[in-house]
Amino acid sequence: MKKYISYIAFVTLGFVACEPEFENSIEDGDVYTSGEADLSNFVAVGNSLTAGYADGALYITGQENSYPNILSGQFALAGGGEFTQPLMEDNLGGLLLQGQQIAENRFVLAFEDATTPLGPVRLEGQPSTEVGTTLSGSFNNVGVPGAKSFHLVAPGYGNVAGVPTGTANPYYARFASSPDATVLGDAAAQDPSFFTLWIGNNDILGYATSGGDGEDQTGNPDATTYGTNDITDPTLFAGVYSQMVNTLTANGAGGVLVNLPDVTSIPFFTTVPVNAIPLDGATADFLNQNFGLYNTQILPGLVQFGIISAEEAEDRQVFFNEGQNFVTIQDESLTDISAILQGPPFNLDPVTAATLGQVRQATSADLIPLSAAGILGTLVNNDPTLVNGVSVPLSDENVLTEDEQEEIAVAQASYNATIQGLAEANGLGFVDARAILQQVANGGVTSNGTTITSQFVAGGGFSLDGVHPTPRGYALIANLIIDEINATYNSNLPGVDIGNYPTVQVTNN
């Protein structure tokens, strides 16, 4: 059951980069112009998506293929200036703090043999990027992996001394202008003539990727009380985002704001099928016998005692068939009956009671994150009767339930309304990344003869972490921004041919 993810269709992958070609070049003798935009000093502000993070790490090749760096190449055709980035020291992607590795190396695609892929593996080797070695100078790309909206205005977020305690960000600590600097302040200090701003994904993404292992802080604007995986209060987000836009446009800079995609558009949540458990008839019958007492006596008894409703009892039924089956999960939104099951009249042992405490089978509305792929179908303590996702339900952090998705969607909708409203109010460009990534997820997007989808590995749009784009995906984002600049600022900048950018890398490449 472990190998239920099929890595197929590798003929669609592009593993090598070619010389860029223009997607919409103009005739010989004409010139490219920036229109009403001043591209001479371009600064990109954001998080990992701006930094060029991919394959679960930040590394040189990824940074060179970041959408801001791709943009800068096109901007150079119409007055754009030098574009600098806080490059990592290698292509492994890990981080060191005082010689100890604190961030993992990047993923590459491993193969069992020439034609049989195994899946993503971490590159081996000792990284050479030391967080404590501060880079000098200023940088046009101030994308900081892991940053939430309010982190960009937080003094000390780049203080190396705060990295071990989690109060500072190791990526920003490498290039912060001072220990008390802010990301926004460092961006504004460069007096940008043009900027991009793509921030807010992490304000909901941590909650999503942890399976809702956090709190929805809507109504609480005090970020100092937040946990790592909490959803940011939309009012706080709106205030911080407005501050960023006001600061970046203070000297008349133009720019483009980018909104936030749905979590259901990324392969981290769409790759592992919720009905991932294949069973033969005999195994299904065996499991149904084991859950028979629970279904036919315990649940009706709890309804009779008034502990749960008949509707909840129906939701908690566990039943298997021959063929593909929905996984079993622990759902924290259900009434915890584990303590009740240990007492009369049930008198179950503590382990069984804990297993049944909040168990139900997943439905088609639930999402299983990619991080659960290595857990499903594995044995607990090598016991063939204890199978994760079957007789042992997945823990709550390994499933994103429909209710948790709704919490994310409500916050995201508010964030996106803020972003679009501020773009319109300030005469800035606006890119609807949510809409385009929905297209990528639902059949794909074709550009200049190259189609990318959100299919994990084979689709070409997303890297091996299932969250961040490949270079080809970042090229698509760059083209969207160029299209918006042309529309908003009357420029005629050319896009790039996304087919000339690579997708995932294999171990022997």
Textual characterization of the structure:
The chain has 509 residues and is an alpha/beta fold. The protein folds into 2 domains: 360 residues, SGNH hydrolase (Rossmann fold, 3-Layer(aba) Sandwich), CATH 3.40.50; 117 residues, no CATH class. 29% of the residues lie in helices and 13% in strands. It is built from 15 helices and 17 strands. A 5-stranded parallel sheet has the order 6-1-7-8-15, sandwiched between helices. A hairpin with a 2-residue loop joins strand 13 and strand 14. It is elongated, with a radius of gyration of 25 Å. The N terminus is likely disordered. One of its GO terms (molecular function) is hydrolase activity. Keywords: Hydrolase. It comes from Gangjinia marincola.
Q: How would you describe this structure in keywords?
A:
509 residues; 5-stranded parallel β-sheet; two-stranded antiparallel sheet; 15 helices; 17 strands; SGNH/GDSL hydrolase family protein; hydrolase
